[in-house]
Amino acid sequence: MFLSELRHQKNTALTLRSPISQKDLPAVMAVEGKTGIVEGIDYRGVPVIAALRKIPNSPWFLVSKIDMDEANALLERRTGSIAIIVGLLIAFSGTGLGLLWRHQSARFYKKQYATEIERAVERTRAEKALQESQKRLEAFLQNSTVVAWMKDEDGRYVFMSDNFQKRFGLKFEDCEGKTDFDLWPRNAAETFRREDLAVLENDQSLEIIVEVPNPDGSLSWWWDN
To answer: What is each CA distance from 69 to 48, 118, 198, in whole angstroms?
Structure first.
């Protein structure tokens, strides 16, 4: 499922889905654990270069991509500029030395350009896409019936859904940045933190039954995943 609106197809956020069997789709590659720069076929059937990254502390993935044709067009323009520079250097340096330098320069600029494409894709799209995905995720959780929350790697709360706040009699503005040890009895907090560390260590979600104190002091049991 795609969280963000797509460039070439409208009204797709939270509605467009692709089968996990489509192995050459960058989004499927991300779900299967691949990261970094990959080549694949996007939802339009068009060859693309994509940057894959897992969003920390969430089950979502960031996929930033550029059409192969767009990337090749950039490469052709850059190659033209390099050819002019190399040609001038050959004219001034002599044919033999110039040919050697041209070979070395072509290798150097090819490597530099590959790095530049990666940085450009990451820089121009990753930050914006991550911010939009985070907003959409929070909006989705706020408008769902689930009791949801998010913590950072240190166990500090960074998000609580309205249902979570109502269920446990809490206000997020009073809890933001606090840990379980600030909000729950010590035995419950130790259990929560132990499960959080297990998720971080294994890099995958867990399904457990936890004992949670209610605002009136009674206990309830929750299925947590």
So the answer is: 8, 15, 43
* Contacts (Cβ under 8 Å, ≥6 apart) of 217: none
Q: Coil, strand or helix: which one is 143?
A: coil
How confident is the model over 143-174, as pLDDT tens digits? 777 788 888 889 999 988 888 888 888 999 99
- Other CB atoms within a 10 A radius of the CB of residue 149 amount to 18
61, exposed or middle or buried, with CB in 10 Å at 0-12, 13-18, 19+?
buried
Residue with tokens 């692709």: 18
User: Are 119 and 127 spatial neighbours (Cβ–Cβ below 8 Å)?
Assistant: no
What is the rounded distance in angstroms from the CA atom of residue 202 to the CA atom of residue 186? 24
Question: Helix 68-93 vs helix 95-121: angle between axes, to the nearest 10 degrees?
Answer: 150
Confirm or reject CATH 3.30.450.20 for domain 149-224, answering yes or no: yes
Q: Where are the domains of the chain?
A: 1-143, 149-224
Q: What is the dihedral of CA 44, 45, 51, 56, to 10 degrees?
A: 60
Say what the pTM is: 0.41
User: Hey, what are 192's tokens?
Assistant: 């929560």
Q: Which residue has the tokens 């379980």?
A: 180
Residue 6 is classified by DSSP as P
Q: What is the spatial distance between Cα 18 and Cα 113, in angstroms, rounded to a whole number?
A: 32
Q: What share of the chain is helix, strand, coil (3-state, %, to 5)?
A: 50, 20, 30
